[in-house]
């Protein structure tokens, strides 16, 4: 009979801006990650025994925790909400971790000079429909984008799922507008796109998610996760900074 695994597995991003900022976050809360080389995707936390750190693409973190291959993970809240399976036992444990700030927002061509609000976009979608067309929205976040548009009474649109640079989509004719991640809005501006009033789909920061079913059934892992979480929250408390504790193990 195989023995129960007691090592807590923490997943962090291996790519993009979230990789460096997550390592900096871990260092700041006193949980520095040690990695043997950039080609090694398993690491550890020297001053916290019993924890294995796995480095994966941000897009794979949620699924890895959902299927039980890992227990907890750090990633952008937008990525988690976009990719999570709602019937599986994962949840956000800690939110608003004060890094990875970004917005998922609509980008509208500057040439649409009379469009300055989400209400205007709704009117444009109707105009497309009246001409027998569908307003095309390019995005890497189809779930969040669709829910947002429908919640604002926009029913006539089609989603164009792109994995590359979205800002080029309107100029190249692949889409009419985009819904993309932005931190400063500069990239949109440089590509002749604008944000609009009410056009932010979600404001996002890094969060800690966990497989609550697996953690609740393994007392050793749960205690290790509690220790990990306590270290993070304690670091913020020492700086008189509040984070959002959304789930108590």
Provide a descriptive summary of the structure in words:
With 249 residues, this protein is α/β, with parallel strands linked by helices. It has two domains: 8-100 and 205-245, 3-Layer(aba) Sandwich (D-Maltodextrin-Binding Protein, domain 2), CATH 3.40.190; 102-203, Periplasmic binding protein-like II (D-Maltodextrin-Binding Protein, domain 2, 3-Layer(aba) Sandwich). The chain has helices at 16-28, 58-66, 77-83, 118-130, 142-151, 169-172, 186-190, 212-217, 219-238, and strands at residues 8-13, 42-44, 51-56, 72-76, 90-95, 102-109, 135-139, 157-161, 177-182, 193-194, 200-204, 206-211, 244-245. Strands 2-3-1-4-12-5-13 form a seven-stranded mixed beta sheet. The longest helix has 20 residues, at 219-238. The radius of gyration is 21 Å and the shape is elongated.
């Amino acid at each position: 009979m195989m023995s129960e695994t007691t090592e807590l597995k923490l997943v962090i991003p291996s790519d993009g801006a979230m990789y460096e900022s997550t390592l900096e976050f871990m260092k700041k809360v006193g949980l520095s990650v040690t990695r043997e080389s950039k080609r090694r995707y398993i690491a550890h936390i020297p001053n916290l025994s019993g924890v294995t750190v796995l480095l994966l693409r941000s897009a794979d973190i949620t699924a890895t925790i959902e299927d039980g291959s890992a227990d907890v993970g750090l990633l952008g809240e937008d990525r988690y909400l976009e990719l999570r399976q709602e019937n599986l036992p994962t949840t956000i444990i800690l939110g608003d971790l004060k890094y990875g700030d970004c917005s998922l927002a609509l980008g509208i061509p500057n040439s649409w000079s009379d469009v300055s609000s989400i209400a205007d976009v709704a009117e444009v979608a109707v105009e497309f429909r009246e001409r027998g067309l569908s307003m095309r929205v390019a995005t890497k976040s189809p779930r969040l984008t669709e829910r947002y548009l429908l919640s604002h009474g926009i029913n006539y649109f089609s989603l164009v799922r792109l994995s590359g640079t979205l800002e080029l989509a309107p100029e190249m004719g692949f889409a009419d507008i985009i819904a993309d991640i932005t931190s400063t809005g500069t990239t949109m501006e440089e590509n002749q796109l604008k944000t609009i009033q009410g056009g932010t789909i979600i404001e996002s920061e890094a969060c800690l998610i966990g497989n609550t079913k697996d953690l609740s059934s393994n007392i050793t892992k749960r205690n290790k996760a509690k220790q990990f979480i306590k270290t993070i929250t304690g670091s913020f408390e020492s700086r008189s900074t509040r984070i959002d504790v959304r789930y108590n193990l």
